[in-house]
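Reminder: ligand-aware prediction takes two inputs, not one.
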Amino acid sequence: MPSSTSIIEKAERLGAHNYRPKAVVIERAEGCMVYDPEGRCYYDMLSAYSALNFGHRHPEIVQAAVEQLGKVTLTSRAFHNVVLGDFYEKLCGLTGKQMILPMNTGAEAVETALKTARRWGAFVKGIEDGKQEIITCAGNFHGRTISIVSFSTDPDSRSGFAPYTPGFGTVPYGDADALEAAITKDTVAFLVEPIQGEAGIIIPPVGYLTKVRKICTKHNVLMVADEVQTGFARTGRMFACEHEGVQPDIYVLGKALGGGVMPISAVAADRDVLDVFTPGSHGSTFGGNPLACAAAIKAMELLLRDDYPRMAEEKGAYILERLCEIKNDDIFEVRGRGLLIGMEFKKPAADYMKKLVSNGVLAKETHENIIRFAPPIVITKDEMDDALERVQTALA
Ligand SMILES: *Cc1c(COP(=O)(O)O)cnc(C)c1O
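Here is what comes back for the chain with pyridoxal-5'-phosphate:
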């Protein structure tokens, strides 16, 4: 086995530098633990940005994938496969929606939602094609495609990628009045994260989602909830919109949907919205492939059978409480919902990050001064206590 140093050297030499990874090489992983080639072990407190809600290599999800590997992995959508219908049925059940459109990555699902909204605007709402407007939020993160970065407010995500896709507006996050004021006769959708993850675990004011829902209904504008990061139990509810009992018109889903094993994403909506697609109008070669569907079906079964939302809520409350007890004058605030927790510092957190890693805790800062703690939802009480002790040592 080459050393971590030589592995990192090769990756830095040959790979584009669109990420700045921590100097930790993960060779294998199980549950919420990861191991490097030298045999050091770490708690995974990032969970691949919430794609690992079930932990690494959940045995039942791996088994479902292995069984599917022995049958068929890819059919394309030129033909039917045995598992896709069951995948639709399970995801319709979880979301309460009538229809699903499967893709692979979160960004593709966001793009799909944008196309859905524009077509719905032209075909159903009766807006002249080319005039459709979609409102987004300051501080958003929805992925990396040209159109998506066109409405990012983060200079790092945008600069040098012009010309930008037109048809998008921006309002402050958490401000329902600003949304209502920004709506015009050509507005087709409002795209919103129920909690802004990448922006630093920004939880909107109580009542925001309820007001957004009312405003969207009143003006016949689609409410599109990007739950790629917050979905599938992460925040202590199956979907974060449920904290306010709100049903968006469109769910955008990804990350944990594939059980941490396969990339799979989806848009879920009712028939009157998603039926704007006709053969040839949208698609993806790998979208809805049987291998990813098999992993997702098992993942969705586990969410319900083992009550992941309750697990995330209880464990999240415990971790939040323990993190709040840490005495360190550099900490500005600790906040979170379920197991999506952010610790904001008054200054850049890089030094603390290094201390966390050397104490065996893998986390990552978002922006310079916020550390996200989002362990796999399967983390046990003993693991939480051990990890929290390490965090305490690193930060106190
Ligand atoms: C990660 C993320 C995306 C993009 O997902 P990818 O699979 O990386 O394309 C979109 N929206 C939100 C809220 C995310 O956290």
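The pocket of pyridoxal-5'-phosphate is lined by residues 49, 105-107, 110, 141-143, 193, 197-198, 226, 228-229, 254-255 (CB under 6 Å). The chain has a mean pLDDT of 98. We will return to this case in the review session.
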